[in-house]
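Model it.
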Amino acid sequence: MEQTQSLRDVTELNEEKDYKIANLYIQRGWELLSTHIADQGEPRQPSQITVYVLGWFGPKGEAPHPTMRERQEAHYGRGTPKSRAQE
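Modeled.
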């Protein structure tokens, strides 16, 4: 039977605005705690984005974070279209 975790057990929190980056955290064992909509942009032309709130329930200081390269690849894809065609 799965043990229920309390929010008191969260040792680290992280917010992401890109679902691809949020998925990297989930793949490393983070839990999706909530999502919410936030306003961004200019007051005259606001836009809304989804914010993903992630929690780490493991030992303090041991939360795995995606590297900058992994974040860039998730966001922009691996390499340019030209370099992908050469692979």
